[in-house]
């Protein structure tokens, strides 16, 4: 997701090849419309054609899974 304007109800998505595609708010599946700052958010979509122009449709936001955190290791406290 490059950006999405909630007030204007549209934005742009970048494909893996770098192509910028227009996306209307109606192009998102129910419950997947972006809110707030969403630049850089991963999105799955299909490329569709509307009035001769390519745009994104069937968009679904993808939940990012946080990598597991490293375990804390305690320093050895042996006294001599």
Number of helical stretches of at least 4 residues: 0
What is the CA-atom radius of gyration, in angstroms?
A: 20 Å
What portion of residues is helical? under 10%
- Sheet-strand content, in percent, reads 35-45%
Shape: elongated
Mean pLDDT level = 86
Distance between the termini: 58 Å
Based on the structure given, which CATH architecture is correct?
Beta Barrel
Number of domains: 1
Query: Which structural class is indicated by helix and strand composition?
Result: mainly beta
- State the fourth-level CATH superfamily: Nucleic acid-binding proteins
**CATH topology assignment:** OB fold (Dihydrolipoamide Acetyltransferase, E2P)
> How many E strands?
5
The low-confidence parts are: none
- The CATH class designation is Mainly Beta
Order of strands across the main sheet? 1-2-3
- Main sheet characteristics: 3 strands, antiparallel
Helix/strand order? EEEEE
Short note summarizing the structure:
With 80 residues, this protein is mainly beta. The protein has no helices and 5 strands.
Description:
The protein has strands spanning 3-5, 10-14, 20-24, 43-50, 53-61. A three-stranded antiparallel sheet has the order 1-2-3, with no helix packed on it. Strands 4-5 form a two-stranded antiparallel sheet. It has one domain (3-61): Nucleic acid-binding proteins (OB fold (Dihydrolipoamide Acetyltransferase, E2P), Beta Barrel), CATH 2.40.50.140. The chain has no helices and five strands. It is mainly beta. Helix content is 0%, strand content 38%.
């Amino acid at each position: 997701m490059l950006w999405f304007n909630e007030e204007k109800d549209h934005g742009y998505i970048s494909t893996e090849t770098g192509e910028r595609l227009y996306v209307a708010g109606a192009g998102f599946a129910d419950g997947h419309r972006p809110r707030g700052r969403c630049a850089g958010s991963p999105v799955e979509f299909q490329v569709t054609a509307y009035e001769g122009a390519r745009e994104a449709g069937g968009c679904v936001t993808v939940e990012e899974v946080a990598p597991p955190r490293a375990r804390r290791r305690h320093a050895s406290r042996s006294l001599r």
